[in-house]
């Protein structure tokens, strides 16, 4: 009896082990469905899931609130990986700014992706030609949890403003803000996002509007003082109503994970992307100019995950 029991216990264990080896689910935090993070996550999962028969990894990339929400979910162990702006990767790992007292020690960098200019779009009838003109206007500052909302707070601080300087500071998600601009619920919207993207295209084609330069002393100082910011430019002619280049500043979209995620899992994800790099770059126009050698270092401030280092070393990149 005892022997039988032991046997069935052993075979149950064996079954459980086989089942575990059959599937390991990984979740990638993205952003709003109209953004580029969603495409990053979906694209990575698409490539990872082509290899499921050999790797046993099954990848999903749900829509989320954005950078801060993704880092918090990784810190809590609710998600394995996620996309986050380079400024919030830095602050999370160093316990600064929004992450003061909430340092995410186990945050690990995997690679960076596209650049994300801090983008302001305004209705033409609101006559907003510079960031200063936003004072007293109705501005969608973005949903809490998003990178643009947190970076907007940094910008306001740097300018010595608060949200009280706006007639309205709404908290709509990226997917809602183009319509709000078109319906004249707000005068301007903010999005830190890769270009070109459908969301800004929607905003600029539904209502007469223009992109607003984000320049001046406060911005120069932010860029000079912080390695995770850089000057950025949105090319003229990319969106209706803005024929000339628009100067602003920006960050990098980065792909991050936790030290708790096993090396072989991160290795397989990185391998899926870089073994199929041309295919990956074809999945969104914002990925067209990505270069491997920049992606493994630019915008990364948390330590690289060992699983990523293993792949980059094998390829001779490190
Ligand atoms: N940069 C935004 C954020 O951190 C997301 C942009 C996107 O979804 O492409 O929330």
Automatic annotation (TrEMBL):
Q: Which domain of life is it from?
A: Bacteria
What InterPro entries is this protein classified in? Answer: TRAP_TAXI (IPR011852)
User: Mind listing the UniProt keywords for this protein, alphabetically?
Assistant: Signal
Q: Which Gene3D superfamilies match?
A: Periplasmic binding protein-like II
The yes or no answer to whether the keyword Signal is present is yes
Signal peptide per UniProt: 1-21
Carries keyword Metal-binding? no
Show the PANTHER family listed in the entry. SLL1037 PROTEIN
> Any idea what this protein is called?
TAXI family TRAP transporter solute-binding subunit
What organism does the UniProt record list as the source?
A: Rhodobacter flavimaris
């Amino acid at each position: 009896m005892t022997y039988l029991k032991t046997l069935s216990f052993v075979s149950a264990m064996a079954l459980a082990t086989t089942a575990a080896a059959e599937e390991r689910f990984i979740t990638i935090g993205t952003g709003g469905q109209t953004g580029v993070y969603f495409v990053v996550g979906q694209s990575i999962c698409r490539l990872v899931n082509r290899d499921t028969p050999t790797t046993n990894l099954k990848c999903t990339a749900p829509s989320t609130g954005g950078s801060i929400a993704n880092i918090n979910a990784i810190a809590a162990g609710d998600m394995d990986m996620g996309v986050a702006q380079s400024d919030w990767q830095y602050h999370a790992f160093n316990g600064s700014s929004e992450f003061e007292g909430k340092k995410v020690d186990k945050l690990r960098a995997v690679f960076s992706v596209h650049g994300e200019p801090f983008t302001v779009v305004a209705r033409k009838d609101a006559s907003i030609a510079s960031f200063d003109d936003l004072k007293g206007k109705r501005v969608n500052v973005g949903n809490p949890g998003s990178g643009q909302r947190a970076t907007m707070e940094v910008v306001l601080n740097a300018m010595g403003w608060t949200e009280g300087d706006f007639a309205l500071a709404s908290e709509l998600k990226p997917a809602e803000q183009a319509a709000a601009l078109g319906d004249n619920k707000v005068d301007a919207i903010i999005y830190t996002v890769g270009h070109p993207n459908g969301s800004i295209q929607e905003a600029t084609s539904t209502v007469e509007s223009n992109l607003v330069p984000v320049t001046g002393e406060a911005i120069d100082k932010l860029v000079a003082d912080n390695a995770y910011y850089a000057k950025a430019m949105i090319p003229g002619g990319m969106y209706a109503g803005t024929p000339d280049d628009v100067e602003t500043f920006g960050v990098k979209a980065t792909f991050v994970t936790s030290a708790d995620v096993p090396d072989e899992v991160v290795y397989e994800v990185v391998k899926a992307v870089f073994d199929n790099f041309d295919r990956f770059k074809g999945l969104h126009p914002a990925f067209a100019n990505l270069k491997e050698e920049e992606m493994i270092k630019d915008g990364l401030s948390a330590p690289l995950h060992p699983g990523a280092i293993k792949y980059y070393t094998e390829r001779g990149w490190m």
